[in-house]
Amino acid sequence: MSDLHHRPAPADRPVVLSARSVWKVFGEDEAAFRARPGPNRAPAALERDGLVGAVQEASFDIARGEVFVIMGLSGSGKSTLLRCLTRLIEPTEGEILYHGEDILKLPEKPLAELRRTRMGMVFQHFALLPNRTVLGNIAFPLEVQGMARAEAEARARALVEVVGLSGREDRMPSQLSGGQQQRVGIARSLATDPEFWFLDEPFSALDPLIRADLQAEVLRLQREHQRTAIFVTHDLDEAIRLADRIAIMESGRIVQIGTAEDLVTRPATDYVRRFVAKVPPAKVIRVASLMSAEVMPDAVETVPAASTIAAVAPRLVAGSGPLAVTDASGLPVGCLDRQTALRTLAEGV
Amino acid sequence: MADTSPTSPAHQAGRTGAGRYAACAAAVAALFVLALLLPPALRDLPPAAVVPLADWTGDALNWFAREASIAGLPVSGITRAVASAAQWPIEALQVLLADGWAKGAGFNRVQIAPPLSWAGITMAAALLAWRISGRGLGLLTLGAGLYLALFGLWTSAMTTLASVLLCVIAALAIGLGIGIRAYRTPSVEPAVRAVLNVMQTVPIFSYLLPTLLLFGYGPSAALFATVVYALPPMVHATVLALRAVPAETLELAKMSGCSRHQTLWKVELPVAVPRLAIGLNQVVMMTLNMVIIASMIGAGGLGYDVLRALRRLDFGAGFEAGMGIVVLAVVLDRLTQTAARNRAQGRTGLWTRRDSLLALALLAVPTAASLAVPALAAWPKALTLTTAPFWNGAVSVINTHFYDALEAVRASVLIHVMNPLRDGLAALPWLAGVLALALAGWRLGGARLAGLLAGLSLFVVLTGYWQAAMGSVYLTLLAVLLALAVGMPFGIWAAGRPGLRHGIDLVLDTLQTLPTLVYLLPAVMLFRNGDFSALIAIASYAIAPAVRYAMAGMQHVPSERLEAAAMAGCSKWQSFVHVRLPAALPTLLLGVNQTVMMALSMLVIAALVGTRELGQDVFTALSRGETGPGIVAGLCVACIALSVDAILKSGASRAARHQGETHV
User: Fold this and answer.
1) Quick check: B256 and A114 CB within 8 A?
2) What number of CA atoms fall less than 13 Å from residue B81's CA on the CB side?
3) pTM here?
4) Which of B245, B249, B252 is the best substitution to test chain A (most A C-beta atoms within 10 A)?
5) ipTM, 2 decimals?
6) For the residues A179-206, what does the mean pLDDT come to?
7) I need a surface site. Which of A112, A275, B26, B52 has the fewest CB within 10 A?
C-alpha cells in the first residue's frame, strides 16, 4: 500500500490508538509464524503451510474523537482486526498502542482494568444478558467495576433516557424489538463513559429503517460527546454516513485508508473501485475539493467548505453564477463554480 | 452434504452393496464353520484361562474398604464418619416429611412434634404447580397428593421424596462443580466424557455394590449410589449449557473487564440457567428411578413397598404402590419441566413473595391442626382406600379364565422362538463371536472400530462372562425386535396423523418418566416369573424411543423432496419407500440405538423375575454382597452397550452421509 492511499490521522488532534504491523495468523503452527522471514509471509506461502493470514500487517493511527470505520466483505478480517485492537483475540505479531503504551504486553489485571474503565463495545447480536432487565443490562459494566447498586442504577436510568427507552427500564430483553435491544447495547457500552468506543457491525442484524435510525443515534451521540470510535461494517452507505476515515480490507490486508471522497475519487485498487462504483460522487465529494482559491468578497450566496456537493444541490440548481465558500468559522475561503459542481452532481446518477 | 466425493468408501459400498454384503455373510458363515472345527478352548474358554478380574476387583475393594488408610486414617473410619454425617440430613428430612419428631420407642414413644401434614404439603405443592404452570398441573398435583394419602402410601412416598430431594441437591452441586471444571479445562473434558459414557451404560445395581461395601447397608449407602448414578446427566448438561453461552456474551464479559469469578457467576451461569434446568429435570427423574431401586439396600420408601408386595405375590398392593411411584414421577417431571420451560422462555415473576407466605401458611396451619386432629397428621388406617383386592381379583380372574390362552402364547413363544435363539447363541464359539464383531466393525468404521469392538468383546470373554453375555444378548435382541416391531410401525403410522401427535407425546413422556421397577408389575401379574415376563417388561420399557424416533424421522422429511416425488407421480407407497424411508433412515437407526440402550438398562431390573444372564449375575452378586463379580458383570453389560452404540452410530452416520441430515 503506497502512502498515497493511506491518509494519515488528522494532524490537529493527538493520536490515541495505533496499530503497528499487526498480524493475526490462524493455523496449527501459529507460534512458528514469528520466525518467518518477510518473503515467506505472502498469502500463497502461508496457505502452503496451512496458515490463514486473517489480518496481515495492519498499520494505522487513530486520532482522538475520530470515527474510524473498518470495512470489508465477510471473511476480509475486519472483525478479527477489531478484536485484535481490544485483545479479545491475541494478535500473532505487532503492537497495539493506546497513548503510546503497547497493550499486548499488559498482564491480565491491568488489561481488565483498561477495558473496565476506558473501553465500551457494541456487539453484532447485541449480547444482552437474558436474565437481566434493561436497567440491569445497562448497569452491568458499572456493577463489574464494583459500583454500589443504587448508584449504578441511577446512572443506568439516565442512559435509558439518552437512548430513548424511557418507560421500558424493567422489560426483559426478550420483550424488546431488535432495534430496542441494540439501543440497550449502545447504552450499556456507554455506561462507564469510555474513551474508546468499539462497534462490531452493530446494525447489520437490523432492518434498513431501524438501521438508519440507529445510525442517526450514533451521529447524535458523537456530536454530544466525541469519543474515539472504531466501527466495523460491511455496509458502504453506513461507512460513508458515519466515518471520518474508512479502512478497506480485502482478504486480511488493508488496501486503502481514506475519507469516503478519497475512495471514490482515488481508489487504490480495482477492488476498491468496484466497491465504490455505485456511490454517486456528489454524495462524497466536498465543496472544498472543487472550489478555487479566489475569494469573492461580495457574494450573496455562500456554501460551507465541509459540505458534500449533494448536500448543497438545492442551492446549486436554484440560481446562477459562482458561490462563495466559507470555512467552519464562516470566513470566506474560496469560490465554487456552479457548472463544475453541477457536472459532479450529474455523474453516477 | 450431497457432495460426498466419489472415492469415499461409503459411496463405493453403495455402488457394489449387494456383492459386499454377500461376501461378508459368506465370511461370517466360514468363521462359524471354522470355529466349530477349532479346538474346544476356542469355543468355550477353559476356566483356567479366565482372568480372575472379578476376584481382584473384589479383593482390592475389600482391602480398600477394610484395611487401607489414607494419611494415617483408616478408610473404614472415614467412610463410617461420612456415612453418619450423611445420615443426619436424611434423618432431618425424614423427621420433617414423614415421621415427625419423637422420643423413645415402643410404648414409651412420645411424639414431640408432628411431621408436616399431608394436607399442608399437598396444598402447598398444588399452589406451586398452579402458579408456575396453571390450573391443570395444580389439580394434578392435588390429585396425586390425595391418592398417596388416601391409599396409605403417604409415609413411604415422603421417605422416597426426602431421598430424592437430598440426592438432587447433592448431585446438582457436585455435577455443577465437575461440569464447570470440565468446561474450563478442555484437556480434562474428553476423559470426563469417556468416564460419563461408561457410567451411563453400567447397570444400576453395579452402583449399589461399592457403596454398600464402603458405607454399609442403609440409607446413606443408597444416597451415595444415587448421587453417583445421577451425576452424568448433570455434568453433561452443565458442560453443554456453558458451551452454549454465545461467544459474543463471553466477549461482553471480557470487554466489561470481568474477572474469572465475575464471568462465571454474573454471566455464564445465569445465561446457562434454562439449559441447566433441563439437566435438573433429568437428574430428578434418574434420582427417583435409583431411589426406588435403592430400596433394596435399605432406603425404604415406595420401592420397598413394591418389592415386598412382589415377594408376597400380592399384585394388588404392588400395583398400588407402583401407581404411587407413577404419580410421584409424573408430578416431579411436570413441575421440573415447566420450571425449565419457564426459564427458557424468560417467564419470571410467576411466584411472588405473597405466594411464599401463603405456602408457608398452607403448610403450618394443617400441621398445627394435626396436633388436635390426628387425621391431618396421618390418614387414619380405617379410612384408607385400597383397590388391591380388585387387582388381585382381576389377576385371578385372568388366570382362571385366560390361563390356557396366556399359557399357550407363553409356551409357544418360549419353545419356538426364545429357547432356540438362546441355545443357538449359547453354542456360539467365542472366537467366532469376536471375529464376527471385528469384521462388522471393520466394514462399518475401519480398523479403529474393529479394534474397539474386538477389545470390548475380548474383555467379556477373558473375564469369563461370555456365556452370560450371550444370555443378555438373546434377551435384549428379542426385546428390541419386539419393541421395534410394535413401536416403529406405530410411530410411522402416527406421524401421518398430526391430530394424534400431542396425545402420543404425552403418553410417551409419561412412559419415559416411569421408574423401571413399575414395568415389571403387569408382566409378572400376567405371565409370572421367567424369561417371557422379562421379555415383555423389557420390550414395553424400550418401546417409547422406537415410537418417538419413528415419528420424528418421518415428520422431518424435507417437504421439497415429497413435492418432487408427488410431481414425479409417485403413489403413496412409492413415495414412502423411495423418499420417506431413506430420508428417515438415519433417525430410525438412532431410534434403534436408543431402544437398545433402554433395553439394556432394563435388563438388570428384569433379573428380579429370574432371568439367566449378566443382569442376574449382577443381581445375585448384589444380594450376596459379592462386590467383584457384581462390578465386572456390570462392566460386561457396559461392553455390550458400548459395542451396540458404536456399531449403530457409525451405521447411522453413514446413512446420514447419504441422506444429508439427521433429526434427533
Assistant:
1) no
2) 6
3) 0.76
4) B252
5) 0.87
6) 94
7) B26
